[in-house]
Amino acid sequence: MKLHKDRQKFINWLSIAIIAILLLALFLVGTFLDLQIARKVGNPNSFFGVFFDWFGKIIYSLPLFIGIVLTIKSLKEHFNKKIKKFIEYSIYFGFWAIVMTIFLAEGLNKYLNNSVIDDGIIISLVLNSALVSLIFLGVVLYVDTDPEWIIEDRRLIRHVILMIIFIVIVNLSVLILKEIFARPRPQTIFAENSLEEYRPWWKIRYTGKNRSFPSGHVAAASTMLGLTILFDKEDSKGKYLIAHLVGWICILLVGFSRMIMTAHFLSDVVAATIIAFVTLVGVTSLRNKQCKFKCFKLPAKEEKNG
């Protein structure tokens, strides 16, 4: 048993070390080649770039919605809270409506104020809205039809809270750093008659008018990694690995789309990813510690007879 735990711990730290080395290597590449890479990959007319650029504006809602659904289900299962179906689904619908209203309002405002008519924006809005709506529906149906893992995890509400803490720390950190570094975006530098010049990330100006470093979209995409906090690595290994895979794919797609749209340099994208990864490691270690707060110590499972 001890040998298995030691082996598992070694694999965990090895995985963390490999990811950290890869991220630092990419950050180093960006530090020296940001401008050259931005000129090479930049293509603001790319539909791929536009689609995942807008996906990055709504992706944060997915882990939050999953957290809401699991919290309600866990309350019903563990605390015998009589939450009526009508109220439960009203909460789901209300959250969906708020997310869609904000997302579509921002998209339509961008479309109407754009000097050039860009149908790619409208198509991206429609497709992303449909995609997220289907995922919301799929989450509710899946949890309704397969609630066993919710019943088995007695600390699920605590894990949801830790996931929200992870999301807040990452996005707040990136927001603060944006204001401090005030780095010009590639699109600002490349614009005709632009007065802005390329500036490496380490040259801080505190101007407050540029917000390229780190990437806010990538910070939003990294919230998908927060789903790994919900699943136990031993008991729900499949869900844990899928959550990791989906999270990293989302970061890759959104990050690359921001570079294509000339909204960020490579170092901007990687910096946000590093912040998310370090925060995830910290919150995950906290998750694995024994909880000392009584409010999170759910009643013990009752053994089933027969």
TrEMBL record:
The keyword Transmembrane helix applies. SUPFAM superfamilies: Acid phosphatase/Vanadium-dependent haloperoxidase. SMART domains: acidPPc (SM00014). Residues 160-284 form the Phosphatidic acid phosphatase type 2/haloperoxidase domain. The chain crosses the membrane at residues 12-38, 58-75, 87-108, 120-144, 156-177, 212-231, 240-259, 265-286. Keywords: Membrane, Transmembrane, Transmembrane helix. This is Phosphatase PAP2 family protein. It comes from Mesoplasma syrphidae. The lineage of its organism: Bacteria, Bacillati, Mycoplasmatota, Mollicutes, Entomoplasmatales.
